[in-house]
Every structure is written in C-alpha cells, then in structure tokens.
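W.,

You were right to be curious about this one. When I first looked at the sequence I had no strong expectations either way, so I just let the prediction run and decided to look at it fresh. Below is the sequence, 298 residues in total, followed by the output.
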Amino acid sequence: MTDVRPTVAAGMRAAAEGEASLREAPGAGAPTANLIVGGAAGRMGSRIVALHREAPGLTLVAALEAPGHCALGRDVGETAGVGSLGIPITADPAAVITRDRLLVEFSVPDASLEHLRLVARAGARAVIGTTGFSAAQREEITTLARQAAILVAPNMSVGVTLAFSLLRAMAKALGDDYDVEITEIHHRYKKDAPSGTAVRMAEIVAEALGRDIRQVGVYGREGLPGERTGKEIGVMSLRSGDVVGEHTVSFGTLGERLELTHRAHSRDTFARGALRAVRWLAAREPGLYSMHDVLGIA
C-alpha cells in the first residue's frame, strides 16, 4: 500500500513556513502594495475591503464596480460596513489601473479579462479569484502574464490549495480501481457551475490518473445512463441557501470509500487568502502564478 503521509507532512510544513514568512513586520522588509479592489461592492470585494488593514504594507487606493451599479459614487468603506475610507467606488478602470498598482478581483470573466488587459498594458499586477473563464479566455490570460505578474486561483483558501496537492497524491496512490466523484455546494446566488474549485479538482485527479477530463468528465446523470464506466469522473453541483462553499472528492471501490472534504464557514477565509496572495505577488516579475506558488507547495 502506498503511504501518502510524507507528502501530506511536506505540504503542511511548506504551508506553515510560507505563512511564517508573511508574518514579518512591515519594517522588516514586508512587501508593500497600492491596492485596487475590483467588484468592490460584491460579497468578496466587501470582505477584502473590510480586512485589508489586517495585512501589513497594503494601502487601498481605488475601488471598482460595473457601470450602472447602485454602489457607484458611494464610499467603499461604508459599503463594506467599516466606516468611511475616503475612496469612492468608480466604474473607470483605465483611470485607476496604473503602473505598480495591484488589482485584486472576484467578479465575472468578461470584466476581469478586460481589467487584466489594462493591467498588462500599464505594468500593474493582479490577483484574480474570478471563476468561469472559458478555454480561450484562460489562454489569453496566459499571454497577458508575459507582460505582468498575474495570479489566478479558483479558490484562495489555504486549505483548498493544500487539498489540491493531497488530491494528486491520493489519486496516484489509489489508481484506477477507485471511482472518483466530486460534489460541490454553494449559495443560491452563484452564477457558474460547476464551481471553479470543483473543475480544478477534476482536472488534477484526471491528470494524476492519465486521463483527459474533456473525455471522462460527467456533469450530472439522468434517466438510464447505464452502469458507471471505470474511467469517468463525476462532477455534481448543488445550490442551496447561503452555503459559502463545500467540496468533497470521493474515491470509492468495492468494500471502502475514502473522501476528502473542505468546508468554508466564512468568506473571510478567501479574503485573507487573497490578501496573502497580494502581498506575495507585490514584488514578483511578470508571469502566471497560483496559490501553490504563494504557499511554496507543488
């Protein structure tokens, strides 16, 4: 039996070391950044605004929302429930995305991609938590990252990032004898399905097993689909109430089932992960990065 515990321990040590390196005081060489929050009046944008002062070295300088949004012109701090910050929410990204500023955004794909084009043009940097990008959009982001430091992650949680690494080890250890099913649950307002996290989990498992997720992915079952094939990877989406986010990957065979589950209890875990990514990216050269780079794990 393959023992995955050394991989788990190594990943946890790397995550802890990465976190320790980010707890240094601002005067001890901590990175600094002038921060722009995209989607500033949204669920995630508001929490980033509310929590950004917890992260040493970050200065909020601008806030963006979509044209016509009801929050335009309002103080972003008041919108986030933390009192006036003296920064109005605007809909003019070209005016605020300038050289050496850092955009953090959870929004919709078209808006985020347009902002990334401005980031690349201006020589800024960006941390993007938006999900639902098409293959063509992801390819364009890869091209833009040649001009600017861009970090894209379907989930900014430290725990989920570690789970991605564990899933790869689990899939390799268990192999083709185990059926893989992924379920995700989110709040009723989530627009894309499956979640970006579930999509990435499916990709990771497929890669580890030498499969093409485009060929083996099954997104729901109905009627009489027949017996489950050995290679398929099921991905199921549920939408309910105010669930922040829950993902379970199940590896099942005759006689046993092994599951890895991550539950987010608050959006603050994603906001703090994004701010951690912002501080890490602040001094990076152009390139396409992920939360794995932030934590220093494979």
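Here's what jumped out at me. The longest helix spans residues 5-21. And, maybe more interesting for your project: DSSP finds eleven helices and twelve strands in the chain.

Coffee later to discuss?

I.
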